[in-house]
Batch of 2 targets.
Target 1
Amino acid sequence: MAKRIFSGIKPSGSLTIGNYIGAIRNWLDFQDEYEAVFCVVDMHAITVPQDPKTLNKRTIEIAKIYLASGIDPKKSAIFVQSQVAEHAELAWILNTVARVSDLDKMTQFKDKSQKNGRESAGVGLYDYPVLMAADILLYDAEKVPVGEDQVQHVELARTLAKRFNNNFGETFVIPEPFVKKSGMRIRGLDDPTKKMDKSSSSEYNYIALLDDAESVRRKIKKAVTDSGSEIIYSEEKPALKNLINIHSFFSEKSPKDIEKMYAGKGYGEFKNDLAEIVVSFLKDFQQKYNSYSDEEVIKILKEGAEKARLIAEKKMQEVKKKVGFII
Ligand code: TYM
């Protein structure tokens, strides 16, 4: 069996450079060695309210971003989660294996339900990690390249796979999270204690991959910095450290070299240069993005779903047999 990887992104906002650095960029490295399956997880997106028209538009937008990033549909399957019904089917079966105590540990649910209180949080939001486990286990993915914030969810997929295998016999491959060191958590530009988040209420939290040059310059100019004026890469200066990490990713220079480049210079110069580095990357990126038409992308997604379905259907047959369903 080919070694497989699986990953996905929710169409719940405009994708940020955090999503690119933490996830998509790392996917590219796997395309040749692994059979890669990349999903736009719209069923995850609706665990918080979405405007249907916007969801529809964003789903295609994310697929275009995958393509513009260099995911090659000839090598990898790119598809939309809701077009392969087996995701929901397996999630239901895994619901009977998951325990309330497993889900109570999930920090993302705690964070997301904090605002309006646990009692009014949706059941889908609570159950979200089980659907994510289904996504991964359905494809026998060995590796799951994600940003740091998703590691706990991949760990849950491991737990459920092991428990299912124990109860019903060897069925699922035990997946491993893959987090690249350079895929460290990119922090919010307005608050380095939080991650850069496409669902953030303030546009000053993130740089979107589809932001225009003026917005990027404005956002970086406004980004919070720490006290002092030197460009130093240190834990004590989390806001600056985050900006240096972003610089380092796009300029391919190490944080130490960046410190040296700006010795004796102030935040102003550093921020101006950083903005231009990001603008230059986004210019090329958006050119590729704009070269795809919606029709072309919808066709690629349809073909991707067909490829994914071949794997998913086979796996579901095996799972159904194991739990005693009539095939
Ligand atoms: P999502 O849509 O929130 O984020 C997509 C990917 O981007 C990474 N990421 C970040 N990395 C670094 N810094 C940041 N500020 C940052 N923000 C986001 C995330 O870690 C993720 O890898 N539950 C998932 C989607 C999902 C999935 C899956 C992923 C559903 N099923 C199966 C892998 C496998 C999510 O909400 O990611």
Target 2
Amino acid sequence: MCGIIGYIGPRLAVPILLEGLKAQEYRGYDSAGVAVLENDEIRLIRSQGKIAMLEERIGGEIGSATIGIGHTRWATHGRPSDINSHPHLDCKNEIAMVHNGIIENFVELREWLTERGHVFASQTDTEVLPHLMEHYYHGDLVEAMTQTVERLHGSYATVALCKHEPRKLVAARRDNPLIIGLGEGEYFFASDMAALIQYTRDVLILQNGDIALITEEGVTLYNDGKQIEREVHHIDWDRTAAQKGGYEHFMLKEINEQPWALGQTLKGRISGDASAVDLKELDFSPEYLKSIQKIAIVACGTAYHAGLVGKNIMEKMLRLPVEVDVASEFQTRDPLVDRHTLSIIISQSGETLDTLIALRECRKRGSKIVAICNVVDSTIAREADYVLYTWAGPEIAVASTKAYITQLMVIYMLTFYLAQHMGKADHAELRSLISQLYRVPEAAQLAIDMNDARAQELSQRMKDQSSAFFIGRGMDHCVALEGALKLKEISYIHAEAYAAGELKHGTIALIEKDVVVLALTTQSALQAKMISNIQELQSRDAFVIGVTMEGNEAVSKVCDTTLFLPQIDERLAPILSVIPMQLFAYYCAVVKDCNVDQPRNLAKSVTVL
Ligand code: AGP
């Protein structure tokens, strides 16, 4: 997820580009750059680091350009660095482009272009764009863009500047946002409204397949080779609301981004016929795979809860022992890790110090290390032998949501990948599971739609409650732990997750009239036992909120109320069952008027011991 800005009009471009990037910095902040047309030449200034670094590099040299593009980066391919920052140029420094998204076939395109004499400077997927434009540009920018995007697999929002067409910008969009701001004799491109509000509130929202040409005279849109019209929208958000996409908090925005994030995590990682998971980042030899005797998963907090789901599915499918530890404990017990252990280190930020220390412990013991991270080129990502990125985009809210759900997606893909390569799974079963993965983004959207209003309604009940319980068995217990953490960390309501079968060994003493219990019941083999646990709670007048697949009346009839999930293979249920938990926690925090995005005492990344 990155921030794009473009401007053409009578005013100086550099200050407008910088302001537009600052307003979108939450979309990505590991490097930034601008390209403007000045004295018929492209002037390119880029800098690793936050936009303030770019501003410093520009200094007072804002020049006289009145057309330009800018980009603030959330790295996907190619570590954060000056050379990997956008905009990127063609061979002749005549075309500059910015891009948000992932070009899945950039390796093949890079080879094709290199064979034709193009020389690349960066490690990014994006850099193929200006070189493709250079290849296809014969005096018509729109035609060049049309032919360029026809070659692309993946997602993109991209804007191009060309020295031969000094008063034009051209753009294209698929699966990543791009809007056009309509000013008075000036026009803008941006990733979202936050960058435009101070200049205009009238926008065109590009749709998939749109190609846009803007000049000072106005906007021309094309789709599928034909000129088209789009409705002008008048946006009345303030800038902060725009940064949150109109949601009240980043956390709710990020919960609602989960279907998109899951799609990004999946992209390019499943074979064309959906028969295999293809993790190009891994190159385990057959001998190494045979040598693995156990798996160690280490993480903290929400990432640890993702690891617990990993234990469940990996032990079931790989028939290998899987140990999961919180990082702070792992380093205290002289862990039984050696060269026959595959270590999986999970961290959204890639900077959690406890987790980094655990990684180094595993390295000392000769273990190969796979990191699952969201922040490209973070310390943990750099120190691991392999890294599988979650591609969820920046997660701003302290409470992790889209990072967790994409960690689960990566864990499932890694499990299926290992099963494939270890010969541990029936081909037909794997094929079925992998085809289900494709449904997950759409099912996640359904889970949000089915539960948003219900969760908000149920949160009213928590206004005066001081505690809640989350129970489940097997994988449902893993998600119960995550549900409890979400509620605790943003609403400050004490919550406890419990293995449902364990309640009667003491904790059930705390159950009395109206105590709220969320009972996760997605695993059919464990359902009968869960129902009797729920009945134990009902007999003590608890208020039981069931979480189960839609249509499961056996469960819903024993609960006071139920949050339903769309049907999916129950082995993938954790990816969906966490969603009502997230929404419930969010609305409880709102009801209790808490600081949802920055809860007290917490930090987004814990880089202290
Ligand atoms: C998540 O909701 C919490 N804020 C916290 O538990 C977090 O998951 C934990 O600190 C680990 O962070 P990491 O994934 O960046 O390593």
